[in-house]
Amino acid sequence: MSALGPLNWLAIAVGGTLGCWLRYGQTLMVQSIWGREFPSATLSINVIGSFLMGFLFVATTERIDMSPALRVGILTGFLGGYTTFSTFSMETLLLVQNGAWFRALLYVVLSVALGFGGAVLGVFLARL
Fold first, then answer.
1. Are 56 and 63 in contact (CB under 8 A)?
2. Burial of 73 (0-12, 13-18, 19+ CB in 10 A)
3. 17-34: per-residue pLDDT in tens?
4. Is 18 within a domain?
5. Predicted TM-score of the model (pTM)
6. Burial class (CB in 10 A: 0-12, 13-18, 19+), 18
7. Residue 56 lies in a domain
8. Sequence-ordered list of residues with C-beta below 8 angstroms from that of 1, at least 6 positions apart, any chain
9. pLDDT tens-digit profile of 32-61?
């Protein structure tokens, strides 16, 4: 089945829904424990999601035999719904592992700087 097959789309949709629900539930739980003064909920989601992406990326390519639809449903759907930071972390790690240190550093700096800049610009334009 091609990467655009209907089973892959369904797996991404189901996984994404579950990931979003988990993110929301975890946000409510962490904020009820530690409050909202520091973005602890988002930090915990990003760290856990990055760990899961690294672990499951390797496990599903090197150790666990599973259907491509299930793999894309977990990695792209579930973890994408849970946190896109996990994808950013994995892509950065792959650049480093391939010896592209400069590109990895550039990716990190540009992602943070441009992402923050985009948020600032969006807020500015919304308030005009």
1. no
2. buried
3. 999 999 999 999 999 999
4. yes
5. 0.80
6. middle
7. yes
8. 7, 8, 68, 69
9. 999 999 989 999 999 999 899 999 999 999
